[in-house]
Amino acid sequence: MMANGVLYSSTLKLSFDTGMNEKGEAVLKRKSYANIKTQSAADELFSAAKLIASLQVYPLQEVVREDAASLHE
Length: 73
Prior knowledge:
16% of the residues lie in helices and 56% in strands. The chain contains one helix and three strands.
């Protein structure tokens, strides 16, 4: 049997570079945006992330889309 997956939620996670700590390691601040439309294309989400980042104090370091799916036969 082959398993099927049904995507039921997506979250957009942005990481911002806030500088270095005393050990010289990068410090990141993360913001999450839940309830993203599951059918949103990657380029749409990246454009939205860049718009959100333009309103922030710190530079955007990383954009992650996290999807959750239900698996069944």
